[in-house]
Amino acid sequence: MNSIVPATLALSADGVPYSAAFDDVYHSSDGGLGQARHVFMAGNDLPHAWAGQSCFTIVETGFGQGLNFLATWQAWRADPQRCERLHFVSLEQFPFRRDDLAVLHARYPELAELSAALRAAWPALTPGLHRLWLDDGRVTLTLALGDARALLSQLDARADAIYLDGFSPAKNPELWQLPIYKALWRLSHAGTTLATYTVAGEVRRGLTEAGFAVRKAEGFGGKRQMLRGGVARAPRRTMPHAGERSALVVGAGLAGCAVAERLAARGWQVMLLEAESDLAQRSSGNHAGLMHPYYSRDDNLLSRLTRAGCALALRHFAALTAAGLPLRYAVEGILQLAKHDAQQQLMAELAKQGGWPDLAFLPPEAASARAGTALPRGGWWFADGATVSPPSLCRANLLRHPRHITLRTGTEVAALRHETDHWLALDASGRPLARAGIAILANASAAAHLPQAAGLPLHDAARVATVLAQSELAVPRIAIAGDGYVTGALDGARVIGAASLTDTLAQAETANLDALRTLVPGLPPPHPLSSRACLRPTAPDRLPLIGALPLAEQSAACHQLRQIARHPGLYAALAFGSRGLTWATLAGELLASHLDGEPAPLEQPLLDAVDPARFLLRALRSAR
Question: Where residue 106 sits, what CATH number does that domain have?
Fold first, then answer.
């Protein structure tokens, strides 16, 4: 794993923030805010350019101390003609820590409110994309932490304006190279504009070769000239959904309710169809569940996806709570207990290697002290680990935008039919249930009964969760996961699990109690309140299926995911397995962003990793 090295706070002799690593200042000595407004905003004809737009996206090549973003956000707030939603995507290899941002922003009292909101949302400094919702979700900052040369080629975004910022070409030549300009051009469209403070000849020539047309303009402060321009020749791009902004979502569990909420937040009208008599009746119906990321030595796809999913979910939970919605959850930490001595040693090594600011290892003594009882081993401590009520999350999601979501329960979708520009949901008699511009399958393994999803490799695992009264389980004081799990307390109860249902429910319940005693030796036998079984649909690689569904018939010549033909306007949010809490919000944000042409919340390798067509592509490659 390439860990993120935070920037070191330092000032030049004249008080300007300075980087010793690049021997350069972060902005002109004539003023950081003035440079942001003159070079980057006015250079891109802002705020005029976003007037009347539903969404406007800015891509920046160096976040630095965030002044360009804060100045843009401030101008957006003050503009009565502003776009409905502002997306700001910024790359940074050496981000500042939260406390350092506070010191840097204290020099700009006019930005105090915005700076405080940014710092409150500031993410753990780990590689990859971090999506921050600000201003009630109307402003979205997507921070891409890592090397811009790698990350730019992995962005899925449609830039309306580009802030080409960074240390000077003489000090940081890697950021001012043709591959960078070509990657920016790939994100552009015919109306994209660009601005930068430098007029260096190699920069002008490189931008021109990449497909931009630039010209010199009046510079800022003591700098006589700057560059501004646009696209000389536009790249081919897949356009966002342009039809009716209505959606059929099949399934009202964690996945369906999250997808409905993310679409409704953007103004879509959503019809949510559920076969059961109420929402969250199947795998999303457990009293409580645990949510924490997964870690691996090689920072594999599962690690990166769970890290992104947990971070986004926690921000979403906080937003739901701030809106006064009835979400029941507690961020009180989770201990992932080592299953054996070799795993304990590996956990200790991974935590010690650094690069994971949100991961700690507790040896057996410290783990036992935190749990309030003797534990056989130590393990990873996730301070942001959460115990969550899945049914309450489903309800909170549907209550957030009630005018945009209609829930119909007791409505089983037996078939889907595409007609020109919309989808029809039909019952078993062939009668129409609902119609909408797009359809999204979020109904777990029941999706495989529909012909359009019959080829998806969904496999069910039956698991049992057992509820115990909180008074029956005074220890452990914390949630623990390992060979089995025990949640924190919610509404006077805790949940243990999740044994396989191989025979009877009573046998699985006994297996859950045995697993609890293995996790926490010496416990007096608790008396279960209830147990319930549910199916957890998974894919063979344990990753979810999120995205456009492929057609069954494909050209044998297909060798990339982008070449796979898809059902028009038909999508999936499936195969969450035991990680529904982790992936539901991420799935909703991914699909809604795609449909509205907004920047994706994940880098391209992770988008490919969850693409429902990945197994079909592998089959085509094997056949060749």
Answer: 3.40.50.150
Distance CA 78, CA 581 (A): 37
Smallest CA-to-CA distance from 585 within 294, 311, 400 is with: 311
| Structure tokens belonging to residue 359 | 């991961």
Q: Is 498 left (phi over 0), alpha (psi -120 to 50) or beta?
A: beta
What average pLDDT does the segment 484-495 reach?
97
Which of these three, 505, 538, 571, is where a domain ends?
538
d(CA 263, CA 247): 8
Do the beta carbons of residue 3 and residue 94 sit within 8 Å?
Answer: no
Q: Quick one: pLDDT at residue 376?
A: 93
The half-sphere exposure of 56 on its side-chain side, counting CA atoms within 13 A, is: 23
444 plus 532 within the same structural domain: no
- In Å, how far from its chain's centre is CA 285? 23
- Please indicate, yes or no, if residue 534 is contained in any of the structural domains: yes
> pLDDT by residue (tens digit) across 516-572?
999 999 899 899 999 999 999 999 999 999 999 999 988 878 889 999 999 999 999
Q: Is 87 left (phi over 0), alpha (psi -120 to 50) or beta?
A: beta
Contact 220, 39 (CB under 8 A): yes
> Is residue 9 in a domain?
no
Domain match, 271 and 364 both: no
Task: Read off the pLDDT of residues 34-85 as tens digits, 9 standing for 90 and up.
Answer: 999 999 999 999 999 999 999 999 999 999 999 999 999 999 999 999 999 9
Residues 142 and 251 in one domain: no
The greatest distance separating any two alpha carbons of the chain, rounded to the nearest whole angstrom, comes to 80
Residues 175, 82 share a domain? yes
Q: At which of 231, 252, 277 does a domain end?
A: 231
Find out whether 523 and 468 touch, Cβ atoms under 8 Å.
no
pTM as predicted:
0.96
Q: Edge to edge, what strands does the sheet with 269-273 contain?
A: 405-408, 269-273, 246-250, 438-441, 566-574, 545-550
CA angle in degrees (0–180, nearest 5) for 399-134-251: 35
Do residues 134 and 117 make contact, with C-beta atoms less than 8 angstroms apart?
yes
pLDDT tens digits, residue range 333-370? Answer: 999 999 999 999 999 999 988 678 889 999 999 999 99
For residue 362, the one-letter residue type is L
Domain count, the chain: 4
Per-residue confidence at 1, pLDDT binned at 50, 70, 90?
low
HSE-up of 473 (CA within 13 Å, CB side)?
30
Check whether residue 120 and residue 187 sit in a common domain.
yes
Shared-domain flag, residues 501 and 430 = no
Question: Is 11 inside any structural domain?
Answer: no
Of the candidates 381, 389, 382, the residue with the CA atom closest to the CA atom of residue 364: 381
184 and 209 belong to one structural domain? yes
- Quick one: how far is CA 307 from the chain centroid? 9
* 262-279 pLDDT per residue, tens: 999 999 999 999 999 999
Report residue 536 as tokens: 């957890």
Looking at residue 288, its pLDDT comes to: 98
d(CA 163, CA 250): 41
- C-alpha 433/C-alpha 87 separation (Å) is 36
Average pLDDT over residues 439-455: 96
Query: Same domain for 61 and 180?
Result: yes
Domain that holds residue 58: 18-231
Please indicate, yes or no, if residue 282 is contained in any of the structural domains. Answer: yes
